[in-house]
Amino acid sequence: MNTDNKNILLEVDDLSTHFFTEEGVVKSVQKISFDVEKGKTFAIVGESGCGKSVTALSIMRLIPEPPGKITNGKIMFGGKDLRSLAEKQMRKVRGNEIAMIFQEPMTSLNPVFTVGEQIVEAIKLHQKKTDKQAWELAVDVLDKVGIADPQQRVHEYPHQVSGGMRQRVMIAMAISCQPSLLIADEPTTALDVTIQAQIMDLLDDLQYRLGMSILLITHDLGIVGQRSDNVAVMYASRIAEKCATKELFKNTLHPYSQGLLRSRPKLGMNKDRLETIEGSVPEPLKFPDGCKFHPRCPLGRDDRRCQTVEPGLREVVPGHLVACWKCPGYGD
Amino acid sequence: MSEVLLKVEDLKTYFAIKRGLLQRTVGYVKAVDGISFEIVKGKTLGLVGESGCGKTTAARTIAKLIKATGGSVDFEGGDVSKLKGAGLNRFRQDVSVIFQDPYSSLNPRMTVGHIIGEPIRIHKKVKGRQLRDMVGRLLERVGLSANYINRYPHEFSGGQRQRVGIARALALEPKLVICDEPVSALDVSIQSQVLNLLCDLQDEFGLTFLFIAHDLSVVEFISDEVAVMYLGGIVERASSKELYAKPMHPYTRVLMAAIPTMDTSQRGVKKALGGEIPSPSNPPSGCPFHPRCPIAEEKCSKQRPQLEDIGGRHFVACWRADFMNKKAPD
């Protein structure tokens, strides 16, 4: 990873977020660290329940408290320690310097307000603008995200626009205050493939024009491959592997990442069977001892050390970190 | 000669749009608008398309869950629309469905034993110990323990629930299984397990699949033949190998290009096709794809192209198929 601090916008260091429930403590995020560089896209990839969304919500300080709590770690954003900010100051960051878009664009828009009213609300909250200026800006950002007839669309209600358009509206709202970091939590999962490609193209384009950083959260390795610069693979609330995206696909080190890559059907592969990862993702209250992946791991299933001692992230190749006892060069 | 199990001809399903106090019909949503295909016994036809293209409506019409507006469905040589009484009963046993969402398609108040056993109890009049044994065997066949028989759906993970759904679909030893997006709600590592299970079951029981999905790579993996749907019609149909090697319809190519590949050299390369899927209640004139098509010409907006065989049982509905044929895919 780049250690030059000037290029780093967001630095997450040793972050842990736990939920204290009646059934026990759910350790959703455990000791994860990563940096998002300026103008670059960092992807967090993993399956449902791995803690990727909780990571995003922790950065935004949107974890419902109680039962949730950030128990450890530092979140440095542009020189500010987000964990130590008072809620009032945090509100100035949220939606202004860091914006977020969500998976389900229908439920994240308010059905009783027009698209324009919702964008104007966000603008007026953070910027000193008159009503007229704010409405002009709303039309302008809708135009920027590729919505035809923004003058008309601004007066429509969410139910009047299609799924892809709604996600564009969400993006318009997110960029209306020119954030330096955009957190995109599964932004295209609910959309059709051709619309997914449009939205991802739009995000690429906006990143280029506005110079913002993107923290992209997804379960789709295909999207990671085409749309990110650096990547962390999460499994059972920890980072299993972290490196430059190109490196991940060229030199996959963790057995879980390897399994994910192999189990995906690819066009034209002419195979009778798919390779699989056996078993299923463990429940957070029933995490196994040792390496959390060992019960499903072809290499570590019967290894005493994998069963008992949890491996930490280590740099095995320059810039390529992995948490696996079985990885060549990992050491003892 | 291979035996055709299901033959669909010019199938149409329209939904009336009703307005006003008297609920007068003011128009129709042409969800399925004249599709034709056949499935040979023991094979899989993949039906692929984006949301709203009519693939699920087509499946439901074939399963006789929705009444067809026109056209015919022949199952084992008999017209499905004429089925009544015992014949319809038989048809219900021969055709089963696996649904997309394993969370909403299992009744949360019923145990797994009840869910899987219900169709057997109703159709085969089996009960008691014999029924339990049958359900136990089904559970084991889909990779679950027979001890799970008294558990409720909420005690299972998504992948396990989908296995329960599969066991239920197999309970009556059907001939045709309609799989409606069976893996799209599942995690990547679980998807491949379920796809492999479906392949194994097909080999073991000689099942015929109508496999519906929006993900072309999943469909290509599991299918022998693939039909691509757009706005209620089939735009291209070919064997899955042929379709992948030589996609002829511009929409098929767009769908293929839109699949995020893990090719990192493509970072920053534009992928998207403009425009959105038009509403089936107000479809464009001529070829339904022409407003988004990169190579559309005047004729495309006037006349709707029909599916034509361009050789080797590769069907395509495109006025510009010749042009696409010359321009080989890269």
Can you give a write-up of this model?
The complex is a heterodimer of chains A (332) and B (330). In chain A, 31% of the residues lie in helices and 24% in strands. By secondary structure, chain A is an alpha/beta fold. In chain A, the strands form two sheets. Chain A has an eight-stranded mixed β-sheet, with helices on both faces. The longest helix of chain A is centred in the middle third of the chain and has 18 residues, at 193-210. Chain B has one domain: P-loop containing nucleotide triphosphate hydrolases (Rossmann fold, 3-Layer(aba) Sandwich). Chain B has ten helices and twelve strands. Chain B has helices spanning 55-62, 85-94, 112-124, 128-141, 158-170, 188-205, 216-222, 240-245, 250-258, 321-326, and strands at residues 4-19, 24-40, 44-48, 70-75, 78-79, 95-98, 176-180, 208-213, 225-230, 233-239, 308-309, 315-316. The longest helix of chain B is centred in the middle third of the chain and has 18 residues, at 188-205. The model of chain B has no long low-confidence stretch (mean pLDDT 87). At the A-B interface, helix 6, helix 7, helix 8, helix 9 and helix 10 of A face helix 5, helix 6, helix 7, helix 8 and helix 9 of B.
Q: How many beta strands in the DSSP annotation of chain A?
A: 12
What strand line-up does the widest sheet of chain B have?
Answer: 6-7-8-3-9-10-12-11
* SSE string of chain A, helices as H and strands as E: EEEHEEHEHHHHEHEHEEHHHEE
Q: Given the C-alpha coordinates, what overall shape of chain A results?
A: globular
Helix content of chain B: 25-40%
